[in-house]
Structure formats: structure tokens, C-alpha cells
């Protein structure tokens, strides 16, 4: 199950391109995905873990070893057994004959662990890609916040200029100019803070692939552009195929293999031995052989069988609990997205246009002496606050969308008529 990187890039509306051809080229979200996929130790660690499990599979596939031995009897005693004159030497070959399918059970258990590792790696990959998207979105958010504060600075500068004209004309006191200058200084402070947040967010993003002194610029984009997501019923259906739940399928195979291995222990193994003995007295040779079997294997295997059955039964309960948790998280994320989507749209179509017209009318009235500085400054603050509110709503929607895609393991834009996947395997 692949997370489509191109669609995740749509979260922040950037162009999906390959690695930057030059150092000065902006970093896209796909670039960040690829860097993390190629370098992050959490993903590279799975290669070493697979090698360990592959070696374990080879080890458990070995049959019991053949044991070669020798024994000497009637040597270094007294009388006729003194020295080596009466010694009898036996050469033997021994091993264990496994019964009950123990070899196949061990192989199945080892192989199921290897198979489960692939699903675990995919889950880790989705979590990492979602974290990359969040951090990239934080950089874009800081850029947008910087733009809003720059807009606020520009409108506050116009207010200071108009207040000075009114002061020079004797139409307003100096306190109005000082108040406008204080508002401008506050806007400049917000601008500096937004720039610092962008620097910190860029460093936080680069830390995912180990870059200590990032010099790149992100491609940016408009987070206010929100894609249309699928209905919740469709999302809930996709949730059933998420890697987080698919892990339980692998875990079930492992526990079933453990149960089968425990059952195989109820069948006792045969210890056998064959050899040849030299009879010192007649200088003849004779064959020897023995077979032994432990008693009570069935009763001794029962505790392990009961434990394996209990673990297997408990796994289904764990899966049910995990499914409920994921469903609740998905419902919450989908609800957040829908609420934020409505908020962004209403602010864009209803609130901001009216505030823009009201601010322009109040500015003209202030120049004509028909409105006070407080009325104009209040509308400017309302306009800036509405833009910030819209940006925060859009960012909340983008974060919710990232969470939806992480949970479902799908990337989508509903209504495109296509749901093909573009997976990138690190």
C-alpha cells in the first residue's frame, strides 16, 4: 500500500519535480520526501533487521546435527583390564529424528517474521512521510505569515503617513502619529517573529535528513487552496486496508506459527545411534545401535500450546481496539477538515471582501476628516486578523488532510476520476 507523494505535495500546492538541478533551486515537497526516504536511519534499519531474520531463517532450517563419537571400555583398570590390552573401542554416529513437523513449523515462524517486517516498514515510511509533510507545511505557513505581516506593515505605513499630514495641517494631535507609529512597530515585530519562525521551521525540516546548516528555499505554494477529499464513508473503507491494521495480519501469522510450533513439541523426537565396536578378546567387530524416546512430551507441551492459543485470541481483541482508535481519529480529522474548509471559503468570499471595501472607504473618509484614526486603525487590524484567521483555518485543514492520508495510506483528490497510485519505494 503506497502513499502517493505527488498528491501529498498538493497539500501545500507545490509542483512535483525531481531533485533540484542546482543548489539555488527551491526545495519541493517531493524533494524532501526523497531525501528522507534515501537517508533516514529508521528506514535503513529495516535492511539490517531483514538480514538478521534471513540468517535466523537459515539457522532454523538446519536439521539436527550428526554427532560422531568414540568410546573406550575396559582400559587402564586392574588385572586383565590393565593398560590397553583388554580395551574395546566403539565408533558411533548419533542424531535426533525430529517428528511432528517441527522443522516446517520453525521455517514458517521465521518466514512470517520476515513477511511482517515489510508491512512494519511501510507503516514507518508512511509515518515519516507524514512528518515530512507537516514540517514542510510549517515552513510554508511561516512564509505566508511573513507575507501577512508585510501586508500589515504596508498598511500601517500608509496610516503613519496620513496621520503626519493631518498633524501638519493641524487637524489631529501628535498622539495620533505616535499611536500609528507604535502600531507600525508592532507590525514590524510580528514580521521579525515570522521570519525567525521560518528559519526555525526550515532547520526542523532539514533535520529529517541530517542537514545541519540548511541554505535551501522551499518552493512554497498557497495553502489556502484545499483539495476536495472523498466522503467519510469512502475514507472509512480505505481505513480497513491501512498498514497499521495490516500489521495485525502479519502478527496473526506469527502467532499461528508459534501455536503450530508449540503443538509440534507434543510429538516426541527419536534419539538414535549406530556404531561399530571392536572386541579385543577375539579381535572381531560388531555393530551396535540404540533408539530412545522421551516420555510425557504431550503433557509437557500443553502449557505452551495454551499460551500460544491465548496470544492468538488476544490479537483479535487488539486489532478491534486499534481499529476503533483509528476510526475515531479519522472521524476527528475529517471533521476538522470540513469545518476548516467552510471557514476558509466564507472568509475568502464574504468576510475579507467586505473588510477590504470598508477599509478603503474609511481611509478615504479619514483623509476627508470624516472618520477618526481609531476607526481606520481598527478596520486595518480587523483585516489583518481575518487574513491570519483564514491562514490558520487553511493550515488546520492541511494538517487534517495529512493525518487522513497517513491513516488511510491513500492519497486522493476526489472528483478527479482517477485514483491511481504513484508510489516511491525508498
From TrEMBL:
Pfam families in alphabetical order: OEP (PF02321)
Extent of the signal sequence: 1-23
InterPro entries: MdtP/NodT-like, OMP_efflux
Domain of life per record: Bacteria
Protein name as it appears in the record: Cation transporter
GO molecular function, one term: efflux transmembrane transporter activity
SUPFAM superfamilies cross-referenced by the UniProt entry: Outer membrane efflux proteins (OEP) (SSF56954)
Gene3D superfamilies tied to this protein: Outer membrane efflux proteins (OEP)
The family this protein is said to belong to: Belongs to the outer membrane factor (OMF) (TC 1.B.17) family.
Keywords tagged on the record: Signal
